[in-house]
Design goal:
- This protein is about 70% helix and about 0% strand.
Length: about 300
């Protein structure tokens, strides 16, 4: 016991350093979890959690029997999968390109430029999208007309809505996502690169055989975490870009929860939808972690 207390005193400042993060997760992540109980109740704000009647799995059955369930599930999964396939590799590619720059001044300038979109809100991103892509006065369509081409319907065309969201995510978050990968690349042993050069490896072969294997564990970890949020596609982005013409491909669980939970006051039902999303995310994390360990990676735990 005394030995444990002496160890605590020795590392006191380290514990104080992590204390704000621990408190954040306890207060804002773990404590609110007790609220999921209302997904099994017919919750009424006037009766409270303790007096609201218990209905069991009724809300989940209603969700699965809803004719819109398949559409919501399809749209959510397709948007997430497109982000994983097209957005997830982009920070890695950009980090590799930045890592190859040898002039530090240019590297810092480029990093600042590509980080900037991350600090813009989705309201601004959506506004820029409308200015660029509007069929009537959008800059891109005006250029197409000047070139003798027909204007293209970007914003109300269901066939390109998922691609539009993916391009927005890539432009906004790719630069910010490079921070972790650049830090991981800085930890790769320089002697490995030197040995590869002595063996006659060029820059591309060094990237393929030294840099990428050196950051593979980071890529796997971030991919597992991304799969854990596969049912979260970003309410604000979808809500701002959605219109009646693309509602069939734009309506996702988050917009559905907004309509039912906020606008219609169906708190128990919307909580059940949120719990369903969380269970799917948990299953994806556990499955991806086991798969990663099977192929020799460390995984999350």
């Amino acid at each position: 016991m005394i030995k444990g207390l002496s160890g605590l005193h020795k590392d006191l400042f380290l514990y104080l350093l992590i204390l704000p993060g621990v408190l954040y997760f306890i207060i804002f992540k773990y404590v609110p979890m007790w609220g999921i109980v209302i997904s099994f109740q017919d919750y009424s704000p006037y009766m409270g959690v303790w007096k609201s009647p218990w209905v069991g799995l009724e809300h989940f059955i209603t969700l699965f029997n809803n004719p819109d369930f398949f559409i919501l599930f399809r749209n959510t999964m397709m948007i997430s999968l497109m982000n994983i396939v097209f957005y997830f590799p982009m920070p890695i590619i950009l980090a590799l390109m930045l890592n190859e720059l040898r002039v530090e001044r240019y590297k810092r300038v480029i990093q600042s430029v590509v980080y900037l979109p991350h600090f813009l809100s989705w309201v601004i991103i959506s506004g820029i999208s409308f200015l660029l892509l509007s069929q009537s006065g959008g800059i891109i369509n005006m250029l197409l007309v000047q070139l003798g081409l027909q204007p293209f319907d970007f914003l109300t065309n269901p066939s390109v809505f998922w691609q539009l969201l993916t391009v927005q995510s890539i432009w906004k978050e790719t630069g910010w996502g490079t921070i972790i990968f650049l830090a991981a690349m800085a930890g790769v042993d320089p002697q490995l690169h030197e040995a590869a050069r002595m063996d006659g490896a060029g820059r591309l072969r060094q990237i393929w055989h030294v840099t990428l294997p050196g950051i593979r564990h980071v890529m796997v970890t971030l991919l597992i975490l991304r799969l854990g949020s596969i049912m979260d596609v970003g309410f604000e982005q979808v809500f701002l870009m959605m219109n009646s013409a693309v509602s069939d491909v734009a309506d996702v669980f988050e917009t559905y929860v907004y309509r039912n939970g906020i606008q219609q006051g169906q708190f128990s039902y919307s909580t059940a939808v949120g719990l369903f999303k969380s269970v799917i995310g948990l299953i994806m994390v556990i499955g991806a972690n086991k798969l990663a360990k099977r192929y020799g990676e460390e995984g999350l735990y």
